[in-house]
Write a structure and sequence with these properties.
The complex is a heterodimer of chains A (about 325) and B (about 375). Chain A is mainly alpha-helical and about 325 residues long. Chain A has helices at about 1-30, 35-50, 60-85, 90-120, 130-135, 145-165, 165-175, 180-185, 190-215, 230-240, 245-260, 265-270, 275-295; strands spanning about 125-130, 135-140, 145, 220. In chain A, the strands form 2 sheets. Chain A has a two-stranded antiparallel sheet. Chain B has a domain at about 70-310: ABC transporter involved in vitamin B12 uptake, BtuC (Orthogonal Bundle). Helices cover about 75% and strands about 0% of the residues of chain B. Classes of the chains: A mainly alpha (about 325), B mainly alpha (about 375). Chains A and B meet through helix 3, helix 4, helix 10 and helix 13 of A and helix 7, helix 14 and helix 16 of B.
Amino acid sequence: MLLLIQYTLIFSSVLTLVALGGCISEHSGVINLGLEGIMVIGALGGALVMSNLITTLSPALLVIVAILAAIVFGMLYSCLLGVACINFKADQTLVGTAMNLLGTAGATVFVKAMNTAANPDNHSSEISYVAARERFMVNIGGFEFNWFMLLVVIAVIVVFILLYKTKFGLRLMACGEHPQAADSVGINVYKMRWSGVLLSGMLGGVGGLCYILAGVSLWKFENGVAGFGFLALAVMIFGQWKPLRIAVSALLFGLFRALSNVYGGFDFLAALNIPGNVYNMLPYIISLVVLAFTSKKSRAPKAEGIPYDKGQR
Amino acid sequence: MKKHRLLEREGVQALIASLICILLGVLIGYIVLLCINPDGAGESIVNVLKNFMTYSKPATQWKKFANTLAKTMPLVLCSLSILFAYKVGLFNIGTAGQYVAGACACLYGALGLQLPWYLCMLMAIAAGALLGCIVGILKSYCNVNEVISGIMLNWISLYTTNTILSKVKESTSPYTMYINKVNPAAFLPKAGLNKLFGGNEYVTIAIPLTILIAIAVGVVLNRTKFGYELKATGYNKNAAKYCGMAEKRNIILTLVISGGLAGLGASFLYQTGYMRWECTQSSVPGMGFNGIAAAFLGGLSPIGTIFSSYFIQHITDGGAFVNTNMYCAQISDLISAVIIYLCGFVLFIKLTIRKLLAKQGEKAAKKAVPAAAKGGDR
């Protein structure tokens, strides 16, 4: 049972972080479908730090540097979305999809090249970080507390205050609702959208790092992040684009994702003899059902997905 | 002047934009190879582009060309699936999952139910269409974003397929059984076409059928009332509704057709025996995603997709020819991903071409004005 709670918390941490990223970006008016790719690249940044700097940095510093690396990688990668969709007015769905493919392909090529350079016989796309992973954990009576769980609580509060209580946040949301009106009172829509995209890159990158640390201590970059970026978007929609509701709905989705990891530990679930594939499917099925019931009265920002053209005022 | 007129044509502009994307994509791939290891980069990128041409014997080349061609057909269908939905304003990223569902249906039909090829093919179409239908219903009645529901269904269909096809897999490996050992009647007929390609066993009626389907998709979209109605729904759902079109039905129908195309694509690959399904697969096959690249690279024209699909498949297969001591085959995936990304800029490239044309037109007009004034004096 403790294991289930632990996995639920860590998976919902991932979902919350990434969904908050998506939420900020959409409030600024850009649909960020590239979150999946951002997660992969952020995870790559963190993993590189964890595998290379493990001996040189002190434990606390390692955690901080790894998170910073994930943030930097995620933000740099999100620039691809910003340039294409804000400055060149490209189709946001297309660019997001391309970023997902590019993230996985790029990370795979990079890690394979790195592994092959270190050892000519090693053609795998794996990075292992066994020792580093322990630095993120605190064992409390069998329960593995992960520093990310604390980070998520802070992130939710910060995003909530940022969006609803600061000038910046309110202006950002204005750009997602009615960019023309925002522009007419002197808000720079392009700047606001860029900040939205960069913030989502930051949160997505950290989410990616959190994801690869969740249950394993080595990651095969060929696999990407298995649709987690999109699950996060489902969480965001279910959370009606509101930070606090996102955190709550992430718990629900995290629970179902955690079930697929630990269902064998429950006697009554194991007795049902359901194939493991069903548990693997569960989070996706649940999100479809949930979306079907919640999308009707969607509170999506009104101008999301539409490139802002100053000439069209 | 004649050159200008040529450039003003929409099709030519699309072609130029696609070529720019390809050039930049390959260039970036080359730079990446250079960064990894400058020694073999030139040779490897040439090998990626040469693909089967790296073989020295012409007969082998011809036969390997047929391999790439056979694998292109499913890709054409996947990109037609993307294209058809995109023309109606829907981004059917679920094509990947519909393709998986098609593979599941045709392989189970062939190996489990021992059906003849045409029934397996119909089952594949039906399975893809069914998934498309789910996305369509969710989109039109529940307002669920088709991209998100599509992705969810991709994973659901992957795990379902792994479960179902485990029933017809070899006991010693994670792969499904060989069709030729269990039910050779499930192979697509070859109709003598394989003789044209040095007896390549993977060349089947899939090739002419695919080309016919591409033409048919073009005709339906551009020449029929049905196609116009679908496109009108895509441009403005409410306007279509106001004009008395069944906009909900149109959305569902579009995704059903789109899903059917993707399902058929799977049948055209797995019923040639080119590949077997691996029942422990943990990621959705890339065919559906490459279809996105092909559709946009082809300038969203059905005939264009045939050529762009061939190109994508060509470099994907070419990835196997890189020097594996230094690089990995995924460099091709990287190049196609870069190309998709660059396709986002197609509109910008076209606008730039038009701006340049307009500037030249202005200059020409200025020159023409004094001449005209003189003419007026007389």
